[in-house]
Amino acid sequence: MWREMKTRELTATALMLIACAAPAAAQDDGMPQGKRPTVSRDAPPSSNATVNLINLLVKQGTLTEEQAATLVKQADDEAYVARQATRDAAAKAEGAEKKATTAADAVSPPGTKRVTYVPEIVRKQLREEIRAEVMDRAHKEGWASPGKYPEWAQRIRFYGDIRARYEGDYFPAGNGALQNFNAINTGSPFLEENTNAPTNPYFPPSYNTTQDRSRFRFRARLGADVDLFDGFTAGLRIATGESSSPVSTNQTFGGNGGNFSKYALWLDRAFIRYQPVQDFVGSVGRFDNPFWSPTDLVWYKDLGFDGFAIQAKQEVADGFTPFFVGGAFPVFNTDLNAGLNTADINLPAPAKVPSRDKWLFGAQGGFGARIDSDTMLTVAVAYYDFTNMRGKLSSSCYVVAASDLCDTDLLRPLFAQKGNTYMQLRNIPVVLSPEPSLNYQYYGLASDFRPVVASAQLDLTQFNPIHVILDAEYIWNTAFNRAAVSAVAVNNFAPTADPNVQGPFNGGNQGWLARLTVGNKEIKHLWDWNAHVGYKYLESDAMVDAFVDSDFGLGGTNLKGYFIGGNVGLGENIWSSVRWMSANSIAGMPYRVDIVQFDLNARF
User: Fold this and answer.
1) FRET partner for 316 with CA separation of 20 to 30 A, picked from 62, 280, 308, 448?
2) What pLDDT, in 10s, does the model give residues 506-528?
3) pTM value?
4) ∠ CA(487), CA(491), CA(492), 5° rounding?
């Protein structure tokens, strides 16, 4: 009898030693799930000393409520794991004891009594093994923190933003008519006058330059970044938009047929990214602009790039970090079955046309230099080469209907804003038989584009968190040939006193922008603020107008003027903005527009 009692006492002692290995916080096993201690500046005293201490630190301002809540959750998770480890350890110890007793009884003579003894080192090892096993299972299965996402879901990060906007567009008197080449090139060709159609009763499509407009608009975007493995990530984003325009995701209320019709969503980002080390990134798909651009003189700030790019940087000295960006981006890919209804009266139709693929190749080099603890300077120079962007006059093309095609029609831009100089694409001879030819025209860009761009930013933080930031950017299209462009141009001529007489071609190939910003660099919290003022000057053929800012002057090149605006935080990740932009044309017909925008922004 004495031996049996001693055995039970030793067994109980072993189980108590295993249980005591759990943290003190694990003793709150009786606390109902979902009623854990909370922390705040006004929280009542708790039975848990750790929570009371954290509440005290919150009241003293040492910890924020968010930090305190994180600490309590961490302690709660560890206690939960410890409780599970204790239960598993007790169960395993009991099972091991039963198996050992059964095995011993099988080989011992009847009536043999024994005392179970487990060395301390074995008990310690058993506790550690069980705890590691429980922790591993907790992380894999996600039950260490009830309600926590499983491991695969934790590798997905969702984000998004919503913007509501009021926009007023105001046109002073005296504006001329601006031909809408984008409407022509994306629709039916325009019938120009020729000897077989001496009087064309129709005017070409044009932009509104005389009637003031007010619009209420919104933008919504939702994206996800996914961590894959060994430096690989993937990303997707959908966005609103009235069309597939690369430079606007705005949707005008009532602008999609009206009557509260639903709005379309577009695939705005889709990419795979490889980042084996912190300072090197390779991307393929549709992704954010990889080139460093402190302003929107050259690239619209939310423009997505299709193709592939690499970005690399390396700190070579204290505070001095050179960087490099390079990439290739298909702007347009010829349809596999692109052909002609008729190309020449002497050739059978239809006939297939050669590929007219358009590409953008770009490279940028620069550096970031911390001049002192309060001054940061970033400078970069980029070179871009647009191939197959300039239009070419077709071979002799017999056209009798708007549906006929010519062999250079694929060179017309399938998206454009306004400002670039255009030329006729179709070489239509005067033919009277068997049917008279008609001058149905498409239009292509009159210039090649190989711009050089210099960018700089000076960030002064002497009044941190208030920044004083100076941004500057300059562009020069090295491929522009004034004589060649003016010989084929159909727009951007200086106005004359006689509306029927064209003046000389006065387009250009340069541009610059300067901006001063004062305030918080990012608007994240309540009463964060910044304000900016700047001036922009962008000649007609300095840059392809399809990719520049869509707000200033209602989008495009051939614009100059000033802008002013500001932002103020209304809460965590919600802020309001206001901007005033006044733009005037540089070349061609007179054009002026003043724009005011009031925004309410939220991100998550």
Assistant:
1) 308
2) 999 999 999 999 999 999 999 99
3) 0.76
4) 95
**Beta strands at 358-372 and 375-387: parallel, antiparallel or unpaired:** antiparallel
Write out the two tokens for 305.
Answer: 């790039």
- For residues 367 and 316, give the distance between their C-alpha atoms in angstroms, rounded to a whole number: 10
Residue ranges of the chain that CATH labels 2.40.160: 156-603
Contact assessment for residue 379 and residue 438, using Cβ atoms and an 8 Å cutoff: no
- In sequence order, which residues have a C-beta less than 8 Å from that of residue 372 and are 6 or more positions away? none
Please provide the DSSP assignment of 330-343 as one string: EEE---TT-EES-S
C-alpha angle with apex 287: 286 to 291, nearest 5 degrees? 125
Q: Name the CA radius of gyration of the chain, rounded.
A: 35
Tokens of 74: 């961490």
Q: ω into residue 465 within 30 of 0, thus cis?
A: yes
d(CA 427, CA 444): 13
Print burial letters for 8-31: b (CB count within 10 Å at least 16), e (below 16).
eeebeebbeebbebbeebbebeee
156-603 maps to CATH 2.40.160: yes
Alpha-carbon gap, residue 506 to 558, rounded angstroms: 10
pLDDT in tens, 150-172: 777 888 999 999 999 999 999 99
Per residue in 289-348, pLDDT tens? 999 999 999 999 999 999 999 999 999 999 999 999 999 999 999 888 887 665 455 555
Enumerate the H helices of 412-539 as residue ranges: 482-488
**Which structure tokens are listed for 350?**
């239809």
Which residues make Cβ contacts (< 8 Å) with residue 487, sequence separation at least 6? none
* Lowest model confidence (mean pLDDT) among 18-27, 118-127, 235-244, 470-479: 18-27
Cα separation of 517 and 381, whole Å? 22
Phi, psi dihedrals of residue 475, rounded to the nearest 5°:
-130, 140
Is residue 169 a contact partner of residue 597, using CB atoms and an 8 Å limit? Answer: no
pLDDT digits (tens, 9 = 90+) for 120-154: 777 778 778 887 887 777 666 655 565 566 777 88
Q: Name residue 274's beta-bridge partners.
A: 232, 282
How distant, in Å, are the alpha carbons of 262, 360, 440, 528, 546 from that of 563?
34, 30, 40, 21, 21
Which sign, positive or negative, has the C-alpha torsion 471, 556, 285, 523?
A: positive
User: Largest alpha-carbon pair distance within the chain?
Assistant: 128
Both tokens of residue 373? 């603890």
Closest by CA to 179, choosing from 495, 487, 446, 421, is: 421
> 602 - beta bridge partners?
162, 574
Q: What residues are paired with 396 via a beta bridge?
A: 427
